[in-house]
Specification:
about 350 residues; Outer membrane efflux proteins (OEP); two-stranded antiparallel sheet; 2 strands
């Protein structure tokens, strides 16, 4: 009938433990989504590098055509042609290497998705996604909103509440228990003989009683259980604070990483545009006979480096954005709420 809240405390322990299990299960879903998203962006970067390598092979072929044309017209020499052919061979090697990396990252994407490695997918490229110039610094409101949503923080909080409820259950062991009991009984005895009527007697009894149990001596077992519950509660509270602090730090670091990635992409874009102008000018000058092969090939290599840097910076920004959404606990949303990121 009454146990000073022991059953209620045990129920609270089980309820909070069940909540923690459910939250961690949802957190695992978010981790899977993040892994697939990251693998998709990495695969997109590999595909972009293949396209850049193929374009670089075309540019190297243009330089070779110009060198052969100059030699045919008596303006060039075999050294220039050999140097141009070396540039083409280098570009072809870079293309083969990029294609191999693309196949590897494709298998990484299939592995993250948990599908067969022989599956053929049509994957939409991610390199055309527009990126913002920058994002605002993380605010205290943004961090607090994220902490209230992160699965690991919520699970740690539920574990702390469960351990605190366990103290109540351990304390109730020192208190008496009030119980209600009831009994009902019946009996039947009879004698029968062939040709004679039955002779018998029936009796019944019933009763209700209320009582209490009082713990007397258990050799310190209950005291030890209470001490253990209090120690567990203190440990889970410290763990919760640690998880919360680490989560806040992850959010701040992820936001700064994304800001750096966006700044790198902006700088790499400007570099790629300047390198393209340099290459076009160097190739035109070489074709016109006022440039040399070394400047043209150097401009070709510089353009390749700049475009690869731009592609990698774009992919890094997308991965950083996915990581920020993950640490914000918003990986299950298509878009991070605008209130979480100050533009």
């Amino acid at each position: 009938m009454f146990d000073f809240g022991q059953r209620g405390s045990v129920h609270e322990v089980d309820k909070h433990n069940a909540t923690a299990a459910n939250v961690l299960f949802n957190g695992l879903h978010q981790k899977i989504i993040y892994d697939v998203t990251r693998a998709y962006f990495i695969y997109g970067a590999a595909r972009s590098r293949v396209g850049i390598a193929a374009h670089n092979l075309t540019n190297s072929g243009d330089i070779l055509d110009a060198a052969e044309a100059r030699m045919k017209n008596g303006l060039g020499n075999t050294v220039e042609v050999a140097q141009a052919r070396q540039q083409v061979a280098q570009a072809r090697f870079g293309l083969v290497h990029a294609q191999g990396a693309e196949r590897d990252t494709y298998q990484g994407l299939l592995g993250a998705m948990g599908v067969s490695p022989v599956t053929e997918l049509k994957v939409k490229p991610a390199n055309g996604r527009a990126l913002p110039a920058s994002i605002g610094a993380p605010t205290e409101k943004m961090v607090e909103a994220a902490l209230s949503r992160r699965p690991d923080v919520l699970a740690s909080f539920s574990a702390m509440k469960a351990s605190q409820a366990g103290i109540g259950a351990a304390q109730a062991e020192f208190l008496p228990k009030v119980y209600l009991g009831a009994i009902a009984a019946g009996g039947n005895s009879s004698l029968s003989a062939s040709g004679l009527p039955n002779i018998g007697r029936m009796s019944s009894a019933s009763g209700v009683m209320v009582g209490a149990t009082m713990p007397l001596y258990d050799g310190g077992l209950r005291a030890a259980q209470l001490k253990n519950a209090e120690s567990l509660a203190a440990a889970t509270e410290a763990t919760f604070q640690k998880v919360r602090d680490e989560a806040a730090r992850e959010i701040v670091v992820a936001a700064h990483t994304l800001r750096s990635a966006l700044a790198s992409y902006t700088a790499a874009t400007a570099l790629a545009q300047a390198a393209a102008v340099t290459y076009d000018a160097a190739l035109s000058a070489y074709r016109a006979g006022v440039g040399n092969i070394s400047v043209a090939t150097a401009a070709d290599s510089g353009l390749l480096t700049a475009r690869l840097a731009q592609s990698d910076a774009h992919a890094a920004a997308l991965v950083s954005a996915a990581n920020l959404a993950f640490v914000l606990g918003a990986m299950t949303s298509r878009d991070v709420p605008a209130s979480l990121i100050a533009r």
